[in-house]
Design a protein that fits this description.
about 475 residues; Leucine-rich repeat, LRR (right-handed beta-alpha superhelix); elongated; alpha/beta; binds heme C
Length: about 475
Amino acid sequence: MSKPAFILSMLSIALSSVLTSSASAQGIDFGRDIWPIIEMNCVSCHGPDKQKGDLRFDDLEWLTDEELTGPGSPKDSIIFELISLPGDHDDVMPPKNGPLSHAEITLIRLWIEGGAKSEGWEVPEIDMDKIKAAGAAKAAKGKDAPKESAAVTLAKGVQPAPADALKALEDKGALAIPLAQNNNLLRVDFNLAGDKITDAEMPLLDAVSNHVTWLSLGNTKVTDAGMAKVAGLPNLTRLHLENTQITDASMAHIAKLQHLEYLNLFNTPVTDAGLKQLSGLKNLKKVFVWQSKVSADGAKALTAAIPGIQVNTGIALAAAKPAVDLSSKFTKDSCCAKAHAAGKKCDHACCVEAAGKNEVCTKCNKPAAPAKVDLSKGFTKDSCCAKAHAGGKACDHPCCVEAAKGNKVCTKCNKPAAPAKVDLSKGFTKDSCCAKAHAGGKACTHPCCVEAAKGNKVCTKCNKSAA
Ligand code: HEC
């Protein structure tokens, strides 16, 4: 595998001046800074479910593989080489929902430089659902990264950020790095320090107020009071507030950010009333409101107010729920059942589509027809059906075909056999019309007696039981 030396040097030119001085390798904590990157970006393919390339990152043995990690020397590390390849390179890791951000790659580089240590840290229980949801969120987010052009335009005339201001941010655990080479705008991530960050840290942004174009306050303890500072960042294009207690009260501040293109309000208490205040932000392209208090109607109202905006309510993500095991519903010998037996998923278009909806393809997996019942016992002697059956066939009279579909015998052609004739003569009253006819070897022909005989009864009018 070729070593992408040019990438390495680009990274170091862009980042070393900013990072190596303050966010030193000693400050990197494997469990806090590195594991979350590995867990969310690598474990889906190198973990309990799949072990691509025979690698499992949830088993910390990989840490002791010197070629893989390259302790002390990122340029000898296969992992560092693969994560820092260009995003469209065939070998880049992760190959999907990537590449890793500058911040993440930098953290891993610093960690490797510091000897790739884990200080006896242990892998917590892996939650594949959480990892999959994060992947889906990243896929949704990645599609709408701010256009390079906006960042380039805004960067015009912006001088490099003062080093002491960057150091002050990094001392608090924030990552503050230039957006790109030759672009002095800054990306500032506070979410790495998470709940250690409160409103008290927000004044640190004053010294770089014209520089900050991406700001992440996700997972921090920042409140509406701290958000007043954010209103003073004129070049902000991307703002992460996910998993914070930010409410509608902050929306008036955010409404002042005329260049804002991306806003993440995932899992905040923001409501429709707050979202409505953003209607004037004509550059807003993507707002993420999954698990906030925003309703479908609220999302629709903002979509109507800002042309071209996408308000993500998470419905697409909810649909991307972990797949249900459908195999129990596959019909014996169906394409799906065969693929499943081979440890695969059926790749017929109809089956793939059905699986996407957590359903079984009903074209390929027909519910078994009810077991055929042997109807021949119900055929009347000499009926069309009995004859056909004797000839080894099914009767083809339409009425019989129709009845057979319902597992029934055609009652028009197969009349239920008349009940066995009962000897009624014992019930005849001595000298009755019936007794006389019987004595003559006949059946009585009186209508009332004929009628009674049909029901296997003795006519009670003519045969009065002896008092
Ligand atoms: C979408 C699935 C997927 C994700 C996510 C993923 N990988 Fe991989 N990885 C693969 C596959 C497939 C291979 C095997 C490539 C091959 O054998 O040619 C691989 C191989 C590797 C290898 C071995 C390469 C070699 O030369 O032996 C390393 C190291 C690696 N991945 C690191 C990572 C890291 C680090 C991450 C997270 C930042 C990651 N991968 C995320 C699919 C993935």
